[in-house]
Amino acid sequence: MNNALSIPATRTLVLLGGGHSHLAVLMQLAKRPVPGLELILITRDVETPYSGALPAHIAGGASLDDLLIDLRPLAQMAGARLIRATVERMDLQSRTLHCAGRPAIGFDFLSINIGSRPDVTAIAGAQEFAIPIKPIPEFLHHWERMQQDAAVALREQRAFTIAIIGGGPASIEMACAMQARLHHNAGLPLPSTAGQESLIRLIVVTSNETLLAGMSVGAQRRALQTLQTRGIEVRVGCRVTSMAMNTVHWETTGTTASTGTLHTNSIIVATGASAPEWLQHTGLTLDQDGFILVNNALQSVSHPYVFASGDIASIKGCARPRSGVYAVRQGMPLARNLRRYANGASLQDYNPQTHALALLNLGDGTAIAARGQWSLQGRWVGRWKEWIDRRFVEKYSRIPAPVESTLPVGAGLPAIDSPVNGNKAQSVAGRPAPTQRHSSIRCAGCGAKVGSGMLHNVLSQLHPCTHSDVLSAHLSTEDAAMIRIDEQRTLLQTVDHFRAFINDPYLFARVATVHCLSDIHAMGATAHSALAIVSVPYAAPRIMQATLLEIMTGCTEVLNAHNTALIGGHSSEAQELSFGLSINGFVDPDKVLAKRGMKAGDVLILCKPLGTGTLFAADMRYQAKQRWIENALTHMQHSNQMAAHCFVRHGANACTDITGFGLLGHLGEMLAPDDIRVELSMNALPVLDGALDCLANGYMSSLQEDNARHASLLSNPQQFSAQPSYPLLFDPQTAGGLLASVPAHAASACLADLHAAGYRGAACIGTVLSTDGQSAAVSLTV
Fold first, then answer.
1. Domain 126-274 adopts which CATH fold?
2. For the chain, how are helix, strand and coil distributed in percent, rounded to 5?
3. d(Cα 658, Cα 737) in Å, to the nearest integer?
4. Do the Cβ atoms of 696 and 614 come closer than 8 Å?
5. What is the C-alpha separation between 739 and 44, in angstroms, rounded?
6. Cis omega before residue 135 (within 30°)?
7. What is 179-231 written as a DSSP string?
8. Domain coordinates of the chain in residue numbers?
9. How far, in Å, CA of 534 to CA of 556, rounded?
10. pLDDT tens for each residue of 94-146
11. Strands 131-132 and 117-118
12. Residue 435 pLDDT > 50
């Protein structure tokens, strides 16, 4: 990660948008961080598409992974805070960005690389009835539906027609790619002779008198000949005047005026670019088309602390086509000037090339190459384009894991398989537990807990004073301490605190607050009030205050949703961000949902999937996908309160929350009586997306090895240790779910209620049985 983070942050650079230019900025700042610079990336799409590979994906020659660049690993490597949000308002006077659903983000300087979308403002009905090719994620959603509709039409022997509005490179590529994919889906050969009939009909409509206006005559001729040979209709000199449902109205632009109507199944718009309307209200100087006007240093001509690049920028005196080629080429000059601005150095001019190489994918393995007055076409050009596109995506997708320094056991660290309470570590996932080295990368969140064995050893040596109204001893395994208030009320108190495991104070606080409240929920109680404990990394006062505000805003939102009052707390400076809460709750002493109390015949129900430990261990090493982490954070922000109500309503006999000691460690705390044991179904364990992938690649929490000692509870570990999900038994969870022991007759209804309450990962994972003379407490089954 960015090694400049140990230096206090004194200024903030916000990268708005995940466009092609910002990829280079992130990579360069990862390689050479700017000391004291806080880096924030705000983007609507974290899995950002590389537009050059879109035609190949549409044609079926490239997978979604070949198209998308996941910004999360790149941001992690650069030490950037990654915020997935939409900016609703930009206040350049106060230098703040106001995002939907979270606190405003401040900055010292700003870089904008948000791309563009086709201009449909001049066509009546286009916004309602047409599909623009950008934003690409939205277009891909429509494309899936179009393929389904086309398949239905062909099965019924009906024609399926797509009109593509625009005559530029994007229109040519989309027409060819869509035709190729739809024919392939239907098992039909691609038309190769002009006039060859097909039920799949594509029509390119442009107001220009030729395709590829502005490109060479040779390129125009090649494109037109290709479309005609493939049976793709071309309407030049036709200006679209309006659209209705599946209908395009047009008029000719030549000397002979005429009008016409096209009836289609889908309308695609790939016309010239337009800028978002909200830029008009920022105070930035814009060009006549609404794009940010910048100088040759890619710096706003009106606001020197604002930079812009790619489609959204217009270089004064240097008009160029809005093409991904220029956005890519601007990446390095932009990175260089942002670094120079941060260091107070003079900026360097960027002079864009006059003619850029254009490569048009024709969807059949061939492509057209054009630059200036020359053009080429062939299968080798298609291979060349594929190589360029693949190399670009891989450059920003294959992020290496950081080099981990390790300490040998002899450096004062105990062997991992040394006895703790008489237990020895078991193999994990069928491999012997490593015993010689300890990684320097230590987990945060609940994976940063002290191991249970060490904790017990220390607590057992303490002799605190006692009070008659304190109902729980310091060695109690209950989720919260209990203090008797009167016959009707028992006060519950619990505390949790850990280092941030994501580089987003607001989201971190929301997850941490859900985690802290969970101990109260696990005991069937109602949270009443909370005290906060927060440590903020030392930085410039504005940055520290903004961080503290984000933390406390996230915390307060969750507490308010639980009707829990924030009544005070403590703050301090630190090297790393950490946060926690001391929670007070109340419960009727006769209605406490204890950790121990399972009965033979009960069914074990877990309300959330497992895997946060391995996912965030991979995330620390830049190897987790955004979709995995985003899904995990969604589950982690889901409070256990409704699950607790559900378990109480269905007569649960025991309950706990699964956190740092993992499923098996916390299940072991529930196994008090000698006359019960548990049968755990490995195939029934709910698992977070990506968790098994991370385990398969060897990414495990730093607490995993200590948790693996709980394998001593198992009667048959060797039968299942090679199963991919086996390590999940020991995976430490942050904001994990509740595990409850529910009477068998109520289990089905309880599970259905959990699903209805939004716990979509809830599952019955085992049963409670009588011991029948067996010594081990837990046996595994398929």
1. FAD/NAD(P)-binding domain (3.50.50)
2. 35, 25, 40
3. 6
4. no
5. 35
6. yes
7. HHHHHHHTT-PPP-STT---SEEEEEE-SSSSSSTTS-HHHHHHHHHHHHHTT
8. 3-116+275-348+356-397, 126-274
9. 13
10. 999 999 889 999 999 999 999 888 888 889 999 999 999 999 999 999 999 99
11. unpaired
12. no
Q: For 46-65, how does the pLDDT look when each residue is reduced to its tens digit (9 = 90+)?
A: 999 999 999 999 999 999 99
Residue from 446, 516, 607, 764 carrying the catalytic annotation: 446
Predicted confidence at residue 722, as pLDDT, reads 94
Q: Do strands 763-770 and 676-681 pair parallel, antiparallel, or not at all (unpaired)?
A: antiparallel
Q: Give one DSSP letter per residue of 343-386, joined into a string.
A: TTPPP------SS--EEEE-SSS-EEEEETTEEEEEHHHHHHHH
Q: Which residues pair with 205 in a beta bridge?
A: 165, 235
Rg (CA), the chain: 30
Cα separation, 713 vs 679, in Å, equals: 11
Q: Confirm if 715 and 693 have CB atoms less than 8 A apart.
A: no
What are the two backbone dihedrals, phi and then psi, of residue 222, each rounded to the nearest 5 degrees? -65, -45
- CA nearest to 425, candidates 438, 412, 408: 438
CA 139 – CA 128 distance, rounded (Å): 14
Angle at 122 between CA 118 and CA 123, to 5 degrees: 85
Helix (H) or strand (E) holding 34: none
CB 721 within 8 A of CB 428: yes
Same fold, 3-116+275-348+356-397 and 126-274: yes
CATH topology classification for 3-116+275-348+356-397: FAD/NAD(P)-binding domain (3.50.50)
For residue 668, give the amino acid letter: G
Phi–psi pair at 493, nearest 5 degrees: -130, 135
According to DSSP, the β-strands at 117-118 and 273-274 are: antiparallel
Q: How many residues does the chain have?
A: 782
- Per the annotation, the verdict on 99 as an active-site residue is no
